């Protein structure tokens, strides 16, 4: 619904604030797991060790923490590929080891993280027959089922239990610094963060790519989306916004929104030239083109229930057009030309500037309904 503006300065400050604790946790668990022989699956041990070795570097860790949505998607793809690769004991290199010498041809393929299919070709070149390839694929599938639970369990302990859920990470302060006022998913509910008399009121933080399946992204700055309880708990929950093969997003991260949603309305047994204050709100029908998020949110259905708000706005629009109201408005403009935006917000409930819709609940909804009303009035009664 609302785009969140990228803030690389804030993301880098977030990383600088927490990097020492993250690196300390990674080093601690590297020693714990591999000196205590905690893991029993050789493939898993190698895979997790490579992962922790790679992200024990501050340079590499920064990519994980401040990476943008498309960069995080590449990391997910690399992890998926590496987990498959770790099932094969004799595969010649490890993706997470930047010092491992490999052929220039293979290196070029690996760098292209957007095309996993090219990586698969490396593996296929090592098979000498279709039967051998089938056996290899079956081994991949079986071993991956054994590797992933252990991998997630370990990474959950590090990135969720000891970093994201640690008391040193103040979620209220994180949300406050984001500066968001309205849930970016629905635009309906405010998401204030307030501390008063020992009571900590804060919105939910959604892990856009869910931490249950991808715990290593649980502290990635652009994966943490402040949201309302309706969107995070009742609707999205732990649903994965990625395709089954993790090659692309099903829905856009709010940082990538290019909003083309439009709200309009229909009136039964009346029109915009009728005195709508005498029209029953049940005769107002909200119409919207929002549909691409139906598997994750209930935005379309929720807004269609807001015929009461649409009705109230239409009544205000009609009053706004009266001579009395317009005279008062014009008098104010003569005193201060900048009062226009304030009057529209105070009386009609929305911002004209798209970039500011996220400051006020229902701003985009009211803006579109008001615009549709103006368009109908401009067409004239004979064209309705």
Gyration radius (Cα, Å) is 27 Å
Q: What coarse outline follows from CA principal-axis ratios?
A: elongated
Helix content: 40-55%
Record the strand order, biggest sheet: 1-2
By DSSP (H or I, 4+ residues per run), the number of helices equals 14
Instruction: List the secondary-structure elements in sequence, H or E.
Output: HHHHHHHHEEEEHEEHHHHH
Largest sheet composition: 2 strands, antiparallel
How many structural domains can be distinguished in the coordinates? 3
Low-confidence stretches: 37-43, 87-103, 105-127
Q: How far apart are the first and last residues' alpha carbons, in Å?
A: 29 Å
What is this entry, summarized?
With 384 residues, the chain is mainly alpha-helical. The chain contains 14 helices and 6 strands. It has 3 domains: 8-164, no CATH class; 171-255, no CATH class; 263-383, no CATH class.
Which key terms come to mind for this protein?
mainly alpha, 3 domains, 14 helices, 384 residues
Note down, in words, how this protein is organized.
There is one protein chain. The protein is mainly alpha-helical and 384 residues long. It folds into three domains: 8-164, no CATH class; 171-255, no CATH class; 263-383, no CATH class. The chain has 14 helices and six strands. It has helices at residues 8-35, 42-55, 58-66, 69-85, 104-111, 116-125, 130-164, 171-178, 229-236, 299-304, 307-320, 323-335, 339-348, 363-379, and strands at 194-196, 199-201, 204-207, 224-227, 263-267, 284-288. The strands form three sheets. Strands 1-2 form a two-stranded antiparallel ribbon. Strands 3-4 form a two-stranded antiparallel sheet. α1 (8-35) packs antiparallel against α2 (42-55), α2 crosses α7 and α4 packs parallel to α6. The longest helix has 35 residues, at 130-164. The radius of gyration is 27 Å and the shape is elongated. The two termini are 29 Å apart. The model is unreliable at 37-43, 87-103 and 105-127 (pLDDT under 50).
């Amino acid at each position: 619904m609302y785009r969140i503006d990228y803030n690389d300065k804030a993301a880098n400050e977030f990383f600088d604030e927490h990097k020492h604790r993250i690196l300390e946790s990674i080093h601690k668990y590297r020693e714990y797991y591999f000196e205590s022989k905690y893991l029993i699956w050789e493939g898993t041990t190698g895979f997790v060790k490579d992962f922790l070795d790679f992200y024990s570097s501050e340079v590499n860790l920064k990519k994980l923490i401040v990476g943008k949505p498309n960069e995080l998607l590449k990391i997910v793809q690399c992890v998926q590929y590496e987990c498959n690769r770790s099932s094969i004991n004799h595969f010649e290199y490890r993706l997470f080891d930047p010092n491992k010498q490999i052929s220039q041809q293979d290196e070029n393929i690996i760098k292209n993280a957007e095309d996993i299919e090219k990586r698969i070709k490396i593996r296929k070149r090592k098979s000498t027959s279709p039967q051998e390839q089938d056996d290899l694929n079956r081994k991949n599938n079986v071993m991956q089922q054994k590797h992933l639970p252990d991998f997630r369990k370990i990474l959950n302990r590090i990135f969720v239990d000891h970093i994201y859920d640690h008391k040193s990470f103040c979620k209220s302060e994180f949300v406050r610094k984001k500066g968001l006022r309205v849930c970016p998913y629905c635009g309906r509910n405010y998401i204030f963060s307030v501390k008063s008399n020992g009571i900590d009121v804060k919105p939910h933080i959604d892990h856009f790519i869910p931490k249950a399946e991808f715990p290593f992204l649980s502290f990635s700055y652009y994966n943490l989306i402040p949201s309302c309880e309706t969107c995070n708990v009742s609707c999205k929950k732990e649903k994965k916004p990625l395709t089954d093969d993790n090659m692309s997003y099903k829905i856009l991260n709010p940082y990538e929104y290019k909003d083309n949603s439009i709200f309009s309305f229909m009136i039964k047994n009346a029109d915009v030239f009728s005195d709508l204050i005498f029209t029953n709100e049940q005769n107002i029908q909200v119409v919207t083109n929002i549909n691409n998020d139906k598997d994750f949110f209930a935005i379309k259905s929720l807004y269609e229930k807001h015929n009461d708000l649409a009705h109230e706005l239409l009544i205000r629009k009609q009053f706004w057009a009266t001579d009395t109201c317009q005279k008062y408005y014009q008098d104010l403009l003569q005193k201060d030309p900048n009062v226009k935006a304030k009057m529209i917000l105070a009386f009609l409930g929305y911002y004209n500037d798209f970039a500011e819709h996220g400051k006020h609940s229902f701003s985009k909804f009211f803006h579109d309904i008001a615009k549709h009303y103006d368009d109908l009035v401009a067409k004239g009664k004979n064209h309705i």
